[in-house]
Design goal:
alpha+beta, 3 helices, 42% helix
Length: 146
């Protein structure tokens, strides 16, 4: 009976490995994918801040040529899309709206002290879940300085 017990357990390591490797690889992929999601959310947040900063310095009192001032939704969107790297810009949705505040001269609310809000959203597709998508959304609100 030389090696009888060991011969019966000979393939056990291979079975254990084949059961454990898919779970381990899925966990590694999920960690990697979650990191990508955090990176993408940071880009979306940054894009909203970039857009609102552009809008506050390109208000109605801006001294640049008329196409640049005052900022419009389309000029803010074009500026944000030119600054965002690492994601598909065709999926990025950028919108801006203006509202009154104390000291704001009135409609169209693009003068000094008026409030501009830039909202950016992006549909993020997870790899580990085979098609699951969430909308990452961020907004930034600032008073127009000029």
């Amino acid at each position: 009976m030389a090696g009888g017990r060991h011969e019966r357990e000979r393939g056990q390591a291979l079975v254990d490995f084949s059961l454990a490797i898919p779970i381990t690889l899925l966990a590694i992929l999920a960690v990697f994918d979650f990191g990508r999601a955090l990176y993408t959310y940071d880009l979306v947040s940054s894009a909203a801040r970039i857009g609102s900063r552009y809008a506050i310095v390109h208000g109605a009192a801006c001294t640049l040529a008329p196409p640049a001032c005052p900022a419009t939704s389309s000029s803010i969107q074009a500026y944000v899309l030119s600054k965002v790297n690492g994601i598909d810009p065709s999926l990025l949705d950028v919108s801006a709206n203006w509202k009154t505040a104390p000291g704001c001269p009135g409609a169209p609310f693009q003068g000094p002290q008026c409030i501009v809000t830039v909202q950016v959203s992006y549909p993020y597709h997870f790899l580990a879940t085979f098609g699951w998508t969430i909308d990452l959304t961020s907004s930034s609100q600032m008073p127009i300085s000029q």
